[in-house]
């Protein structure tokens, strides 16, 4: 008995020491550190397994060779813009107030994001309209199609898109498709056999060599990018699957935002795809002028494409959101399926409210991931005490990732307002400096408000005990979500 007690004590001490060594060898947020310490200490064996798959940091040595920017020729213009900004010279004629130029500076110098003008953009809020436009552009492709999605399903929509890609490949168009291995577990290489037969190439991001087993499983490529002939780009929140057309009963109508871009901002999407592809595929794409054709002026929209991921030292998209919030003078409109902010974002919104800025947030009324949903509900409701307007979208499922600041600044992309998007997933957002597109995006937001139900302090305080328990548990583990 004494021997057993001593053995348990020794194992407990060893477990604590190992926990401390494992956790503190990597720089991470304090809340995450404490959460993992609790998991490792109170459920030792299971906790270590969970940490192996979900807690380990990714190598800070770049997964993506940033030198590839030099190969594709974007580094020259980016460096010119950095130098101009350091001398307080705006790279192009100002399109917005001086304060917004601070954001341009941040994204150019800190985020390595090219500032582009003369873009034309179309906002899609309906899945069918978005995919009809995408397939129409695929049918017109002449040189190449680059497609990158988190989720691609082998259902009706997946087949529809695949058949369009096959037709393009038969015409001699170079087709490359990069899918996240975890998000696209329902689709296999066999599904793309005909496309591959005609020269199409398929790659999986962080592939699962053993089904559902991968020590990097917690780090996913959440980006949605399509580039056609280097001239047209698509990016936003829609993945490829029938649910994104509102054809899955569980979710009903799927509300999302997606952009069709024509103009020099497509260069940034192309650059991102090439780096992602080259990081995962043996057949590296070399520089080819056809990938970056000369683009004629097609519009007047100024924009920057910003990306982030766990391979970088900084949380670029989180910093972008934070700067946008701090720039607001009148209103902040947010749509997000998951609102699990870190302290900086949460406090920035509170400060905005206390400073007289209107904060209006729309979240789903139904969960696709229960723990995430109840954490979202709890964090969003906390802002009610500061005067925020919180609405739950009742028409279907709210999946849009949108931030509108005042009347001329918009972010649309793949990144949610949560810890996962900030630190764990590879994301892409488009920051738009344009009053007209901001107005269109706001009009869509206000239309969604008609289909939403306001959450009041009175109703929230009367929630059931079971809901309070769910919220408490969800918030406890929120640093790990």
**Helical content band:** 40-55%
CATH architecture level-2 label of the largest domain: 2-Layer Sandwich
Strand content: 15-25%
Give the end-to-end Cα distance, rounded to a whole number of Å: 41 Å
Q: What is the total number of structural domains?
A: 3
CATH superfamily of the largest domain: Endonuclease Chain A
Q: What is the alpha-carbon Rg in Å?
A: 23 Å
Sheet with the most strands, sense and barrel status = 15 strands, mixed
**Poorly predicted runs of 5 or more residues:** 66-71
Strand arrangement across the biggest beta sheet: 4-3-2-5-6-8-1-9-18-16-15-10-12-13-19
Mean pLDDT score, rounded?
85
Q: What is the CATH level 1 assignment of the largest domain? A: Alpha Beta
**CATH fold topology of the largest domain:** Endonuclease, Chain A
The rough form would be described as globular
Structural class: alpha/beta
By DSSP (H or I, 4+ residues per run), the number of helices equals 17
Secondary structure tally: strands: 19
Tell me what you see in this structure.
- It catalyses: 2 a 1,2-diacyl-sn-glycero-3-phospho-(1'-sn-glycerol) = a cardiolipin + glycerol.
- Its EC number is 2.7.8.-.
- Pfam families: PLDc_2 (PF13091), PLDc_N (PF13396).
- It comes from Enterococcus innesii.
- With 481 residues, the protein is α/β, with parallel strands linked by helices.
- The protein folds into three domains: 2-54; 71-87 and 118-301, 2-Layer Sandwich (Endonuclease, Chain A); 316-480, Endonuclease, Chain A (2-Layer Sandwich).
- The protein contains 17 helices and 19 strands.
- The strands form three sheets. Strands 4-3-2-5-6-8-1-9-18-16-15-10-12-13-19 form a 15-stranded mixed beta sheet, with helices on both faces.
- The longest helix is centred in the N-terminal third of the chain and has 23 residues, at 2-24.
- It starts with a helix and ends in a 5-residue tail after the last helix.
- Mean pLDDT is 85; it is low at 66-71.
């Amino acid at each position: 008995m004494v021997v057993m007690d001593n053995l348990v004590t020794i194992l407990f001490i060893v477990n604590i020491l190992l926990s401390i060594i494992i956790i503190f060898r990597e720089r991470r947020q304090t809340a995450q550190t404490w959460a993992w310490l609790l998991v490792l200490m109170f459920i030792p064996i299971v906790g270590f397994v969970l940490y192996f798959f979900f807690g380990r940091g990714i190598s800070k040595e770049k997964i993506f060779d940033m030198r590839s920017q030099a190969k594709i020729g974007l580094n020259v213009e980016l460096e010119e813009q950095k130098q101009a900004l350091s001398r307080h010279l705006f790279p192009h004629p100002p399109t917005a107030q001086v304060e917004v130029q601070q954001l341009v500076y941040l994204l150019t110098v800190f985020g390595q994001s090219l500032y582009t003008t003369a873009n034309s953009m179309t906002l899609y809020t309906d899945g069918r309209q978005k995919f009809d436009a995408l397939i129409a552009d695929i049918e017109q492709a002449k040189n190449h199609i680059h497609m990158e999605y988190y989720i691609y399903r082998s259902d009706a929509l997946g087949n529809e898109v695949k058949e369009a890609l096959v037709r393009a490949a038969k015409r001699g168009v170079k087709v490359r498709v990069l899918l996240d291995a975890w998000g696209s577990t329902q689709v296999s290489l066999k599904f793309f056999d005909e496309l591959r037969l005609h020269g199409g190439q398929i790659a999986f991001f962080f592939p699962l060599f053993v089904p559902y087993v991968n020590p990097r499983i917690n780090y996913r490529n959440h980006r949605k990018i399509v580039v056609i002939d280097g001239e047209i780009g698509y990016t936003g929140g829609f993945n490829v699957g029938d649910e994104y057309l509102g054809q899955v009963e569980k979710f009903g109508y799927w509300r999302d935002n997606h952009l069709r871009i024509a103009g020099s901002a497509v260069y940034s999407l192309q650059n991102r795809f090439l780096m992602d592809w080259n990081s995962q595929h043996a057949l590296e794409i070399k520089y080819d002028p056809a990938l970056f054709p000369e683009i004629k002026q097609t519009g007047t929209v100024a924009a920057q494409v910003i990306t982030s991921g766990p391979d970088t030292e900084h949380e670029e998209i989180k910093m972008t959101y934070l700067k946008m919030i701090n720039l607001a003078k009148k209103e902040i409109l947010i749509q997000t399926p998951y609102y699990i902010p870190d302290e900086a974002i949460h406090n920035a919104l509170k400060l905005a409210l206390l400073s007289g800025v209107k904060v209006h947030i729309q979240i789903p009324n139904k969960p696709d991931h229960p723990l995430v949903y109840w954490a979202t509900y709890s964090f969003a409701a906390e802002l009610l005490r500061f005067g925020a307007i919180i609405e739950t979208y009742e028409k279907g499922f709210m999946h849009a990732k949108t931030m509108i600041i005042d009347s001329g600044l918009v972010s649309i992309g793949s990144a949610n307002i949560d810890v996962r998007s900030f630190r764990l997933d590879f994301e892409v957002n488009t920051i738009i400096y344009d009053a007209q597109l901001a107005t269109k995006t706001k009009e869509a937001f206000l239309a969604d408000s008609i289909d939403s139900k306001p959450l009041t302090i009175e109703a929230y305080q009367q929630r059931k005990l079971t809901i309070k328990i769910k919220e408490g548990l969800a918030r406890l583990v929120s640093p790990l979500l």
